[in-house]
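Before surveying the methods themselves, it helps to consider a single example record, giving the amino acid sequence and C-alpha cells:
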Amino acid sequence: MMEKLVGYKTKGQIAYEEIRSRILQGMLAPGERLVIDQLASEFGVSKVPIREAVDRLIGEGWLERSPHIGPFVPMLTSDEVRETAMLRAALESDAIAHATPRHTDESLAEAELSLRSMGAGDGDFATLNVRFHTALIRPCPYDQLRSMAIELMSRAARFHTVLRLGDYANPTQEEHEELLGAVRAGDPDRAGDLTREHIVRAAEKLEAHLSARGLAGER
C-alpha cells in the first residue's frame, strides 16, 4: 500500500491519512487501542512515521494517549458532540452564505449528485453527507473558513458512523432538499439559517442517542 504513494507523500502523511480514515469509518472504534508495532508492520514502514502520525492525530484530537495503554480512540461524549456542532454551525453557516451567490450550474449539479446518491442509498451515507455539504460551501472565497468547516464536517461524520443511526437519513434528506433549494434560489441568509438549524438538530439527536445508550458522559 505504502510503496505506490511514497513518491509524492511522506510515509508519515500516508500513515496519518490511513489511521484518520479508519477512525472516521468506524474501523477503529471508540476506546480501541493502537499498537505502534502492529501498524508499522501492516504498513511496511518503521515505527517512526507511525509515531509521527499518531502524535499529529493526538494533537488534532482524533486520538488520546494514556500512560498505561498508549494511544487510543477517545470515547464519544455529549460535550464533544455539542462543541463540534456549535463550532460547525457557526463556521459552516457563514461559509454557505458566502458561497451561495457564487454557485454555478456545475457546482450545484455536484451537490445534487451527492444528494441523489444519499437518497438512493448509493454509497456510505456519512461520506456522501460530507460530500454534499462540502459541495455547497466550495465556492466560499475564504480558504481558512472553508477548510475549517470541512474539518468539522469530518468530525461530525465520525459520530454518525460510530453510532449508526438507522432512522437518521429520512428527515435529514428533507432538510438537505430545503437547503439546496435555498442555495439554488440564491438566498444566502436562508441558506445560512437552514444550515445552522440542520446542524443543531443533528447534534440534539446524537446527544439523545448517546444518552439512551448510557454514553452521554462529560469530559
In short: The two ends are 37 Å apart (CA to CA). Residues 15 and 199 are 30 Å apart (CA to CA). Confidence is low (pLDDT under 50) at residues 1-6. The first strand starts at residue 64 and ends at 66.
